[in-house]
Amino acid sequence: DEEAPLDYGDNILDVEPLEAIQMELDEDEDEAVIDWLYEGAKPLQHSKFVNGTSYKKWTLPLPIMANLHRLSSQLLSDLCDRNYFYLFDINSFITAKSLNMAIPGGPKFEPLHR
Q1: Where are the domains of the chain?
Q2: For 68, what's the count of Cα atoms within 13 Å in the CB-facing half-sphere?
Q3: Model confidence over 5-34: pLDDT tens digits?
């Protein structure tokens, strides 16, 4: 690990972001979401599916939820085996990071809270 870390200001700050990815929706299969999925910042804000102005709780019917689940299947993990991560314990990792400890053979962390 003799390579210098990337500096945000020098390497990333001036880079223009790429264009957003938009999937091509089928008019028959994606009929439940095609009208509002790429609408803007807050789709369905003024519809009966959003509870009030808080935009925190949604009540979507089953066809819309099924369609969104099908569209998001590429992003969902297919790992259902609880033993898959048995060599990496996320709770121990977070505790070590919180306590500013060095993991043997691994990095030393800065404290999470200052």
Answers
A1: 25-76, 78-114
A2: 10
A3: 778 788 888 888 888 888 899 999 999 999
